[in-house]
């Protein structure tokens, strides 16, 4: 049935997303020891009209957001000393994520 096929597809996408997110988190931790969380972007903070909203409307089933390493102290303005390490860990996390999909 269509309902069953949809449920199977959703389960596959969910498993894929979880595995890819875990790979990214693990790669980031190996870079500089920072711990990121593998959670849905909607769990980060309230938002609407984001790029993830738009991409889902285009029919894409997997969209990912990698946030900066800050835990609330600096917001989106990291100190200069954290910019390069953040870039390094994010690119390694992105590569791990893509290689998992």
Kindly summarize this structure in a few lines.
By secondary structure, the chain is an all-alpha fold. The chain has helices at 2-32, 51-57, 80-100.
Keywords:
globular, mainly alpha, 101 residues
Account of the 3D structure:
- With 101 residues, this protein is mainly alpha-helical.
- Helix content is 58%, strand content 0%.
- It contains three helices and no strands.
- It has helices spanning 2-32, 51-57, 80-100.
- Helix 1 packs across helix 3.
- The longest helix is centred in the first third of the chain and has 31 residues, at 2-32.
- The two termini are 27 Å apart.
- The relative contact order is 0.19.
Chain-wise SSE layout:
Blueprint: H1 2-32, H2 51-57, H3 80-100
Helix pairs in contact: 1-3
Question: Which stretches of 5+ consecutive residues score pLDDT under 50?
Answer: none
Number of helices: 3
Mean pLDDT: 80
Strand content: under 5%
Which term fits the overall shape?
globular
């Amino acid at each position: 049935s269509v309902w069953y096929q949809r449920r199977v597809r959703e389960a596959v996408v969910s498993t894929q997303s979880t595995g890819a997110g875990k790979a990214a988190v693990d790669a980031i931790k190996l870079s500089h020891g920072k711990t990121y969380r593998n959670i849905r972007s909607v769990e980060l903070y309230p938002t609407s009209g984001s790029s993830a909203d738009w991409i889902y409307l285009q029919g894409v089933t997997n969209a990912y957001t990698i946030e900066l390493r800050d835990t609330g102290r600096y917001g989106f303005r990291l100190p200069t000393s954290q910019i390069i390490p953040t870039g390094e860990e994010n690119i390694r996390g992105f590569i791990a994520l893509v290689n998992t999909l």
